[in-house]
Design goal:
Strand order of the largest sheet: 3-2-1-4-5
CATH topology of the largest domain: Nucleotidyltransferase, domain 5
Number of domains: 2
CATH superfamily of the largest domain: ATPase, nucleotide binding domain
Order of helices and strands: EEEHHEHEHEEEHHHHHEHEHHEE
Number of strands: 12
CATH class of the largest domain: Alpha Beta
Distance between the termini: 8 Å
Structural class: alpha/beta
Bound molecules: 5'-O-[(R)-(carboxyoxy)(hydroxy)phosphoryl]adenosine, zinc ion
Largest sheet: 5 strands, mixed
Helix content: 40-55%
C-alpha cells in the first residue's frame, strides 16, 4: 500500500510517501526563519506560507518518485490538533487530490503520528506507554495499537517545549530556543536546587510547567547579566566567552534537569498506574533533548522496557510520520469522507473513521 502524507499543522510544510511501512521520499520546507522575526509562530503568515509552498513540494516529490496521484492507495493528512488556518490548507489540498483521483482520504491525529513515527525505523511494541513532548503538547498515553490511544496525563498550562522556548526567550536566545538550551546544558552539571521540578507533589499524571517558568523569570530578574541584550543569533551563542558561558550553561543544565526529571517522575508514575507494557515510546520535538533522552533511558532500563526514540529528524514535525500513521490506519481499514474536519488545538480529535475491512 502506497500512502502520501501531508503535514501543515504548524510551521513546517511537509509531504512524504510511504509504501508498506517504508519511506519512499519526502520534502520539507520550514518557516522557522520567517517566524523567528516575531519570536513565535504567526498563524496568518503560517497559513499563507503553506498555501504557497505545498503544491510545489507535492510536485517535486511526485516527480522524484515517478508517481501520479492515481498510483496512491491513500492520502493521509494531519487534521489536528494544530493551527486551524494551517490545517485547512493541508486538509483542502488532500481533499482535492482525493476528489480528482478517487483515492481514499485518511485524517491523521498529529499527536498520534508523532508517537507512531519510530515505527519507520524499527518495530513498535504494544501495549506501550507513550510520552509526547512537543511545542504544543505534553501528553502521556497508554497505546494498545495504532488505533487505540488512551490519554493518561496532559499539561494543564504550558507544554514542555513551550517551557523551553519561553525560558530561551527570557534569555534572549535565538528562536525556537529549546535546541540552544540543550546544547549549553551539555556543558555544565545541573544545580538541582536552583529550579523546582514543577507539579510533582501530588498523585496526578498531569503536568504543569508554568511554575518553573516563573522560577526562571525570577532567577533571570536577579541575574540580568545572563541575558543577551537583543535576540542573539546562533553564532552569538556559539561565540559566548568563558565565564559568562559557564554561568549560562549552569542555568540551562539546571532548567533542563528540572524538566527532564519531572517527565521521568510522571512517566514512572504512569507506568505504575497502567501495569505491564512492552515499551516506552517518546516522541515530539522535545524528544530530541539530550537530558530527556537520558532520563527516559533510565526509566526504560529500570522497568526492563524497550525504549523507542525516533531519530532526531523524525522528532520534529515531518511528513513521513503522517504518511506512516496513515498507512497504519489504512491497514486497519480506517478512512474518512470528504467532509473530514480540521481540529484546532484545544479540541479533542474525534475517532470518526469509516471502518472498512482491514487491508494487507
Ligand atoms: O514536535 P515539534 O516539532 O512541533 C510541535 O508540534 O510543537 O516540537 C517543537 C518543539 C519546540 O518547542 C522546540 O524548542 C522543541 O520542540 N525542541 C527542543 C529541542 N529540539 C526541539 N527542546 C529541547 N531540546 C531540544 N534539543
Ligand atoms: Zn508536532
Amino acid at each position: 500500500m502506497r500512502i502520501l502524507g501531508i503535514e501543515t499543522s504548524c510551521d513546517e510544510t511537509a509531504v512524504a510517501l510511504v509504501e508498506d511501512g517504508r519511506l519512499l521520499g519526502e520534502r520539507l520546507a520550514t518557516q522557522v526563519d520567517t517566524h523567528a522575526l516575531f519570536g513565535g509562530v504567526v498563524p496568518e503568515i503560517a497559513s499563507r506560507e503553506h498555501l504557497r509552498v505545498l503544491p510545489r513540494l507535492y510536485r517535486q516529490l511526485m516527480d522524484a518518485t515517478g508517481l501520479r496521484a492515481e498510483d496512491l492507495d491513500g492520502v493521509a493528512v494531519a487534521r489536528g490538533p494544530g493551527l486551524l488556518g494551517s490545517l485547512l490548507v493541508g486538509v483542502s489540498f488532500a481533499k482535492g487530490l482525493c476528489l480528482a483521483s478517487g483515492t481514499d482520504l485518511i485524517g491523521v491525529n498529529h499527536l498520534w503520528a508523532h508517537l507512531l513515527a519510530p515505527g519507520l525505523e524499527g518495530e513498535l511494541r504494544f501495549p506501550a506507554l507513550g510520552l509526547l513532548v512537543s511545542g504544543g503538547h505534553t501528553h502521556t498515553y497508554l497505546i494498545q495499537s495504532p488505533t487505540e490511544f488512551e490519554l493518561l496525563g496532559r499539561t494543564l498550562d504550558d507544554a514542555a517545549g513551550e517551557a523551553f522556548d519561553k525560558t530561551a526567550k527570557m534569555l534572549n536566545f535565538p528562536y525556537p530556543g529549546g535546541r540552544f538550551i540543550d546544547d549549553l546544558a551539555r556543558e555544565a552539571e545541573p544545580d538541582t536546587g536552583l529550579f523546582p521540578r514543577p507539579y510533582i507533589d501530588n498523585p496526578t499524571l498531569d503536568f504543569s510547567f508554568s511554575g518553573l517558568k516563573t522560577a526562571v523569570a525570577n532567577h533571570v530578574a536577579d541575574h540580568p547579566e545572563l541575558v543577551f541584550e537583543t535576540m542573539a543569533d546562533p553564532q552569538a551563542v556559539a561565540d559566548l566567552p568563558g565565564e559568562r558561558r559557564a554561568a549560562l550553561a549552569r542555568v540551562c543544565a539546571s532548567f533542563n534537569w528540572a524538566v527532564a526529571d519531572t517527565l521521568r517522575i510522571k512517566v514512572e508514575r504512569a507506568l505504575k498506574r497502567v501495569g505491564a507494557v512492552r515499551s516506552l515510546i517518546v516522541a515530539g520535538g522535545v524528544a530530541a533533548n539530550t537530558g530527556v533522552r537520558e532520563a527516559m533511558r533510565t526509566v526504560a532500563d529500570g522497568h526492563g522496557l524497550a525504549l523507542t526514540l525516533p531519530s532526531l529528524s523524525l522528532c520534529t514535525d515531518n511528513g513521513a510520520m503522517i504518511a506512516h500513521a496513515g498507512w497504519l490506519l489504512a491497514k486497519a481499514g480506517c478512512r474518512h469522507g470528504l467532509d473530514l474536519e480540521a481540529i484546532p488545538r484545544g479540541r479533542i480529535v474525534p475517532l470518526d473513521w469509516e471502518r472498512a475491512a482491514p487491508k494487507g
